Amino acid sequence: MAGSHIPFCTALKPLLEEYGLADKLWIIDGVIPARDREELLALGMDGIFPNGSKFDDIAKFIKENV
């Protein structure tokens, strides 16, 4: 998302709510600076996986939270 993760997630949140999808697991990955993680959690992110996250960790998180 080239640094646009917060605006993108901010725009996505009301759409998820509008279409009854707000209760679904919401995760994001990629180049996400540590300074942005708190804001993403406040937007409703369930999991944040910055660059370098291991696939096994992501899969485990999904299995434990679905």
Q: What keyword list fits this structure?
A:
66 residues, alpha+beta, Rossmann fold, two-stranded parallel sheet, 53% helix, flat
Question: What does this protein structure show overall?
Answer:
The chain is of the alpha+beta class. Helices cover 53% and strands 12% of the residues. The protein is built from 3 helices and 2 strands, in the order H-E-H-E-H. It has helices at 5-18, 34-43, 55-65, and strands spanning 27-30, 47-50. Strand 1 (27-30), helix 2 and strand 2 form a beta-alpha-beta unit. Helix 1 runs parallel beside helix 2.
Total number of helices: 3
Measured as a percent range, the helix fraction is 40-55%
Mean pLDDT: 92
Compute the number of strand runs. 2
For the record, what is the CATH homologous superfamily label? Cobalamin-binding domain
**CATH topology type:** Rossmann fold
Largest sheet: 2 strands, parallel
* Secondary-structure arrangement, i.e. CATH architecture: 3-Layer(aba) Sandwich
Name of the CATH first level: Alpha Beta
User: What shape does the CA trace take?
Assistant: flat
